[in-house]
Every structure is written in C-alpha cells, then in structure tokens.
Amino acid sequence: MQSKKEHEHLGREKLQRIIDTCKSVEDRSLDPFLVDIKGNINTVKEYFPEWKIPEDLCLDAETVHHLAYVTRLQSDWVKHRSTSLYTDPFLLEDKIRRMEKVDIVKNFVKIWRPTIELEQISLRSLTEALEYWDSLLPLKERWKESDLGKNETGTATREQLINEKILRDIAFSEELETFWRELKNTAEKLESGKIRYWNFIGAETYNETVQRAFMTSFLITYGYATLEIHPLEEEIFIVPSQKPAPRTDNRQQVSIPIAVSANDWQKWKKGELQ
Amino acid sequence: MSKRKAYYASKLRRATHLLFYKRHKKPGVKGWELHKALGPDYPKVLKLLDGYLKTLDLQVKTVFEEERPIEKPTTQQLDRARFLITLRGEITPKEAKMIGWRVDDLAGLAIAITYIISKKGKSPRKEVEDILRDKLPGWKIGLNVDRYIRYGYLTQDENEQLYLDWRTRAEVDQNALVDLILSHEKPS
Q: With contacts defined as CB-CB under 8 Å, which chain A residues touch B86?
C-alpha cells in the first residue's frame, strides 16, 4: 500500500511532468494536440485534495495555467486550419526546397508591394532647423569653464588613507574569512544551523548594517554561505558553508537584490523586521 | 475653385507630406497623428489621395495593429493603425535590384515569410535558418535574418522564435504568396 507521503510525492512529479510537456509545446511550437488535456485535468483533479501547503497549491495552479494556455493553442490551431492560410507545412516546405531561387523571387515580386519612403529634407524641417540655429547659444557661452580653483598637491600617509576609507587596514580576504567565522559561530548556536538575514546583518548603526550587508553579499558570491529564500513567508536565511566552496561549476548564478533601506533598519531595531 | 475643393486640396497636400517623408524610425504615420494633423475626416482625405496615387501605380496602405485586415474598422482601430504608401502593381526582379535588394536576399525573405506562414505565424529561428541554408551561403544566413528583423519584416522574441512583423503585413499578400508557391510548376 502506498503511503500518503509517497502518493503526494508522485502527485508532485506528475504535475511537474505536465508543466514540462506544456512548456515544450509552448516554446517549440509543437502540435498542441500532443497534450492530452482531459487526461491531465483528471490527474490534477485526482491530486488536488492532497495539497495542503502553499507550494503544492502553487504547483497545482501553475499546471492549470499551462493546460489553459495549451487549450488556447489548440483553439488557435483549429481556427488556423479553417482559414484559407492553412497549408500543410510539409508540402510548403518541400515546395520551397525544390524551387529555384529565381523562381521564388519571380513569384514573390508578384505579390510584394514595397513601401515608399523618402528621407529628404523638407522646407518645413529646414525652417525649423534655422529657428533652432538662431536660438542656439555659441559654444563658448554654453561650455563656460567653471572656476574650480587650484589645489596644491602633497603626500598622504597610509593612516590618512585608511581614515579616508581609501585603503583598508586589513586585506579584504582576511576580513571576509573573519566575517565568515562570525557567521558560522552565530549559526552554530542556533538549532536550525541558519540565521535570519536581518538578524545577521543588523547592527547598532545604519552605516554598519550596510557594511555588513555588503560583506554578506561577498560571502554568498564566493561560496562561504548560501541564501535560503522562502518567498511566501517572505523569509530569508543565511546558511554558512562548513568550508569555503568557491563556485567552479558552469551553473548560471542568480543575482538576488535585497533592499537594505534606512526604514527597514529602523523596523529591525524596533523588532518589526527579522 | 469651390471652398470645399480648396479645403480638401490643402488636406491632400498635407497628407502627402506626412505619408511620403519618413518622420520616425518606422515609415508611415499612425492614424492618431493623421487625425491630429488633418482632422476627424482624415479617412476621406486618404481615400482621395489613394485615388490620385492610382495613376502613379501607388496606394495608401493601412496596417492594423491586429494581425488580420479589418473590413469595417472603427475610429479607434483606424487611430491605432499605421498608414503607408506602397506600390500598387507588380515590380520585376530587375526593379527589385534597383531598390537595393539582391536576388539572394529577396529569395531568402520570401522563403522565411512563407515558412513562418506555414507554421501558423511562429517558427524557431533555427528552423528558418536551416531552410535558408539550402539556398544561401552559410555565412549570410544569420546576417540576412537580422536584416529582415531590422527592416520590420520579421520579429524575434526572447526564446528565438520568429514572427511576421508590421512590414510583412503592409507589403505582402500572404494568401497570394502561399497560393503562388504551391501552384508553381517546374518548367519542363
């Protein structure tokens, strides 16, 4: 006897298969009648009572959406077949392949009515251009050099550059490693082994919070951590990697923009944002 | 000249300027622009102009936003449509050369359009390029398809699917093209 869990798992797989088939018909202009709409609707109906969590309900809705689209394609297909434009594509393709280039052109020019278009200056545009020219200020008036004053050159010490935030006092890679260790230690203390995004980046000042968000983005990009996003709950978690794992595979990486506004920071401080 | 005649004569001149000269990226004028420049009776002015152009073997062509031509369009449909001047009669392959089309390129265009029509107006770019490869040198295929897209004969979506674009709807009688290709007999 199949357990409830296995039954649900099978249902999810079946729905995903239906979506994939519909997508291949939509994307590759295949015959929409390849999809058995009635049979697939029965499958959707069969598993619908099982779905409780939002992800499964979304999968169900997505399946219905794709089946509806394929039904529309089937309708278009029937309409097209009933018009005079319908011709067996294989017959037409075969004709095109066997016809000489010159014959194709001879036939095409019989029905081709090229557009007439002139690109010439008219008296009206000439008048408009003259008016524009009259109202145009001379270059020396438009590009007046602003008096910026002269700055004297000098030398700056390393400490001054660090104070000005032009140079960093430790190497970036070292800073990243320290930050990763901090993330690991914090996450290890939690039962789930992951930490909410704002709980990690949030700091006493907004400037510091932005700095921590900036460093976190590098942790994720360089494989020191991964992001876990739960879109329906609007929750983002950071999961530290046990070892830095630089991404060397060819999988396409996805950029995830996360806004870190001053308003959000204030909400986090008040405990309204996690 | 009666007042009414003078009124339409001046409107005709204005319509000619608007339609012949390319003002935007695409040739032709939108209905709402004509409405603004010529007044609400612009369809009548265009009909008169079409009559004048007949003697010159030219015509005023209406391209509706909808894919198929509309027999009795509403004012809204006309305002959204594009109006162009096209040739009324046939041209010869020699004349086609004179307006900047090589026989190769024109054959490629005819094949691409016919193939897309046969596929219900939508076909993967790769399939169109494969069929063009039969008649055109490989290095030209991509360039030609890009050119057809640039001119507005074809359009391409993010999935590399090709569709017929506004210029094909304006310049090509799709039914007649399919009929001609299908009825073509190889001379014995």
A: 113-116
pLDDT digits (tens, 9 = 90+) for B134-181: 888 888 899 999 999 999 999 998 888 999 998 998 899 888 888 888
Which pairs with CB-CB distance under 8 Å and at least 24 residues apart come from A100-103? A101/B103, A101/B104, A101/B107, A101/B135, A102/B93, A102/B103, A102/B107, A103/B184
Residues A113, B172: C-beta atoms closer than 8 Å: yes
Q: Which residues of chain B make contact with A80, given a CB cutoff of 8 A?
A: 120
Instruction: Specify the range with the lowest mean pLDDT, choosing from A127-136, A145-154, A253-262, B7-16.
Output: A145-154
Q: Note if the pTM is more than 0.90.
A: no
Domain B94-183 has CATH 1.10.10.10: yes
Write out pLDDT tens, residues B58-82. 999 998 887 666 778 888 888 999 9
Nearest Cα to Cα of residue B92 among B77, B103, B79: B103
Q: How far is CA A47 from CA A9, A66, B82, in A?
A: 10, 17, 50
With CA atoms as reference, the chain B residue closest to A77 would be B120
Tell whether the model's pLDDT for residue A82 goes beyond 70.
Answer: no
Q: Which residue from A28, A95, A120 is facing B184, i.e. has the nearest CB?
A: A95
Q: Is residue A213 part of a domain?
A: yes
Where in chain B does DSSP place strands (E)? 29-30, 58-63, 82-87, 122-124, 154-156, 161-164
User: A81, A96, A129: which is the final residue of a domain?
Assistant: A81
Question: Residue ranges of the domains in chain B?
Answer: 3-89, 94-183
Is residue A230 in a domain? yes
Question: Using CB atoms, which residue from B27, B180, B186 is nearest to A107?
Answer: B180
Number of folded domains that form chain A: 2
A138 in a structural domain: no
In chain A, the DSSP E strands lie at: 195-196, 225-230, 235-240
Parent domain of A226:
172-269
Residue A13 located in a structural domain: yes
Six token digits for residue B152: 């507005």
